[in-house]
Amino acid sequence: MDLSSKPRLVLIDLDGTLVDSVPDLAYCLDEMMKALGKAPWGVDKARGWVGNGVDRFVMRGLTDTLWEDPEEAIFAEARSIFMKLYADNTSGRSCLYDGVVEGLDYLNANGFKIGCVTNKAEAFTVPLLKDMGIHDYFEIIVSGDTTAKKKPDPMPLLYAADKLGEAPADCLMVGDSMHDVEAARRANFQVVSVPYGYNHGVDIREANPDAVIESLADLKTLLA
Questions:
Q1: CB environment 6-26: b (16+ within 10 A), e (fewer)
Q2: Which tens digits make up the pLDDT trace of 21-33?
Q3: Which of 38, 44, 157, 224 is the most buried (most CB within 10 A)?
Q4: Average pLDDT, the chain
Q5: Which residue in 107, 102, 150 sits closest to 125, CA to CA?
Q6: Do residues 80 and 102 both lie within one domain?
Q7: How far apart are CA 15 and CA 197, in angstroms?
Q8: Alpha helices, DSSP H only, in 148-223?
Q9: Final residue in a domain of this structure, among 49, 72, 88
Q10: What span, in angstroms and rounded, lies between the C-alpha atoms of 141 and 156?
Q11: End-to-end CA distance of the chain
């Protein structure tokens, strides 16, 4: 697999692509469950639920399903508890994936514009990027509440491209999930996937991205 043209703007997903944030998310989910008088789930269970924003993550903890909605009152209580926990536990247990800094350094040194596009709310996105030491690589950061719609809608990607003055044909999305691939396709971006993130147990190759790389360090070879 290969790209048809060299991009000018590279947009990168956050959770599951740049940062393994599951340890912090799982901790907060378990503490939330305990506060509600329910049994905690543990890290392995939580790992299969990350990737569609905090609200859906909380819903999954309450329902033990990917897409069922819990009763509104219990969700409102649970969400409030989780948000307070996560505000204090955004990054302490999280870490960058191997190759992230190498990949960002390559993009930065070779004149690519770089953006981060995530479904995570801005209140958590910016502190996490800063705590991980990579915030300043990005010319634009589009969070889950920056635009009216989130990935897999193309709106966040098109918003970033417009703000940085690039046509979709000159843009690349890098992510770990089928929602990243779908958003890129709908935005007419090229798309590259990493296989190590949060895709609910499904091999990302099934989404047919333009390429799959083992780490962001491999962008150097792909874009050379």
A1: ebbbbbbbbbbbbbbbbbbbb
A2: 999 999 999 999 9
A3: 157
A4: 96
A5: 150
A6: no
A7: 8
A8: 155-163, 178-187, 219-223
A9: 88
A10: 10
A11: 15
Q: What is the pLDDT of residues 184-214, one digit of tens each?
A: 999 999 999 999 999 888 999 999 999 999 9
Which pTM value belongs to this model?
0.95
Phi-psi region of 208 (alpha: psi -120 to 50; beta: other; left: phi over 0): left
Q: Which long-range contacts (CB under 8 A, 24 or more apart) does 98-102 make?
A: 98/215, 98/217, 99/214, 99/215, 99/216, 99/217, 99/218, 100/18, 100/19, 100/134, 100/215, 100/216, 101/133, 101/134, 102/215, 102/216, 102/217, 102/220
Structure tokens, 149: 């719609």
Task: Give the integer Cα–Cα distance in Å for 50 and 200.
Answer: 8
Active site residue 98: no
Q: How confident is the model at residue 1 (pLDDT cuts 50, 70, 90)?
A: low
Q: Evaluate whether residue 29 is within a structural domain.
A: yes
Q: Which of 2, 13, 30, 170 is labelled catalytic?
A: 13
What is the DSSP code (8-state) at residue 135? G
CATH of the domain at 153: 3.40.50.1000
- Give φ, ψ of 214 to 5 degrees: -75, -30
* Token pair recorded at residue 175: 């992510």
Q: Classify 173 as helix, strand or coil.
A: strand
**Predicted pLDDT of residue 94:** 97
